[in-house]
Amino acid sequence: AAKSSGRDRVHLFSPSLREAARWRLEVATKLRGDAIDQLVVHYQPVVRLDTGQIEGVEALVRWQHPERGLLSPDTFLSVAEETGQIIPITRWLLRETTRRAAEWAADGMALRMSVNVSARHFSAETLVRDVRVALQQSGLPADQLVLELTETSVAEDPTRAEDQLAVLRRFGVRVAIDDFGTGWSSLAQLFSLPIGTLKIDRSLIAAAERVSVGDTGAVLAAIVGLTRTLGIRSVAEGIETPEHLRLVREAGCDLAQGWLLGHPMPADRLREWVREVQR
Ligand code: C2E
Ligand code: CA
Ligand code: CA
Ligand code: CA
């Protein structure tokens, strides 16, 4: 029941090799200056598979570039990672998204807010303070904030990761492991961490569909079974077709996200979407 959101489509600007160096320099320079004001956040619904209700949203950053249009994060976040600008960007995002979630909650639309945190920020001293400040300034209850971390960012330094996660958990903030299935981290290590949610990468959903002729998504069902045992909630990413939806429902996933269920959209559109779709 998702509305087409053609207007919100991002561009995957792919510069030629010669242009690439210039683009990196432009990104590095601009993101240090006024471009941070040109960043916008889109919100993608995360839907409960049992009731169909919206449970929360994932915040996804875009760059409203004055000449090139709405740019996908893939075009500029890797440069921001290298230069370290990812930290002030995420700090801004934490403030913006918690403020937005608090505003929605005050308006009767309480939604859990998921924010992506890069490995670089996760291993930095400032993350805990940035999260605390955002929660204090917005007044958002800590359990309404979910930090999404990739497998690789926790695997880099597991001891440090455990400490960081313990502090965040003491605040009451939730943590999700993102893109599960794309890395090769040790399952034992991953599941020894205090995580609340596992987001299953869309490559696994697509793979499950391909082998589903005889043996319907056995791998998927096994992963979901494991999360159940450990008391971790599972989110299936990249649900594009009714077949994907059927597959992840059968596997027993708790939550799902994808174009079939709702595209990422600007805040005001999400507000409308919830009113229209979730009556
Ligand atoms: P991600 O965290 O895995 O986010 C999901 C990506 O999948 C988003 O791409 C989303 O638009 C896209 N997507 C959603 N539904 C579908 C679907 O049904 N099919 C397909 N093929 N794709 C779908 P987006 O917005 O281009 O972001 C790409 C990546 O950039 C994100 O992957 C995340 O790793 C990173 N990113 C985005 N926003 C932020 C941010 O604010 N901070 C950080 N550190 N990283 C971000
Ligand atoms: Ca994510
Ligand atoms: Ca993901
Ligand atoms: Ca990703």
TrEMBL record:
Signal peptide: none annotated. Coiled coil: none annotated. Residues 20-278 form the EAL domain. It comes from the Bacteria. This is PAS domain S-box-containing protein/diguanylate cyclase (GGDEF)-like protein. It comes from Blastococcus saxobsidens.
